[in-house]
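Give me C-alpha cells for this 234-residue protein.
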Amino acid sequence: MSDITRRSLITRGSAVAAGAVAGGGLLATPASASEKTSGLTPGQALARLRAGNRRYVASRAAGPNRSRGRRVAQAEGQTPFASILSCSDSRVPPELVFDRGLGDLFIVRLAGNVTSPEGVGSLEFAAEEFGVPLIVVMGHEACGAVKATKTALEDPNFKASENVGALAKSIAPSVEAAKKAGAKDIVESAINFNAKRQARILRQNPVLAPRIADGRLAIVSARYDLETGRVSFL
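Here you go.
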C-alpha cells in the first residue's frame, strides 16, 4: 500500500471518528451529556420538557445527565428544574417520557395524579428548597383511577377501602364535570378535567401562589398518550 493510500485512509478514518463524536455516535454516548438544570425560568423549564418529549416520541432519546460525573455531582445536592405530579401507572415514567436524567425532575406519583396532603407537601418542599420553577400535573390515557371513580359513582354496590375511597373522592368532581359537559367518552374527558382541576388546586396553595404571582413558578396541566408517548399540555 502506498503512502498516499495510507494517508487517505487515516484522513478518512479521522473524519469519520470526528463525525461520530459530533453526531453523538459510538465515541460520544448521549448519556454522558450534561446540561445546566438550575436557574431556569418557568418558560425555559417547560421548553426543556417539551423538547425531551419530542425526542422520546421520535425514539431519539439523548439520555442527558446520566453519566458517572452527574451521579457524583448530584450526591452533593439535587438541582431539579421541574416537579411532576403524575399517576402511579407503570406505563408513565416521567424521566423517560421527558428524556431527563439524574436530579432533573422532582417527581410525586399518586394514582389519579391527585393533590393529597403528602403530595402537595412534597411539591411545596421542592419549590421552597430547590426553587423549582415549574410544576406539571400530568394525567394519562386510560387512567385506571378515573375509570374506578366513574364505576364507584354509578354502581351503588361498588366497594373500596377507605384509602381508595379517598382517591375516588378527589377525582369524582372531574367525572361529574365530564358528564355535565356531555362528553362522549366520560373517562377520557374526565382525565383532562382532573389534570386541570388538580393544577388549579395547586395554584391556590398558600405556599405556591406567591411564587406564581412574582413569576418564580408556573403550574400547568398535561396529558400523556400511552400509544404515541406524546405529552399534550392542556
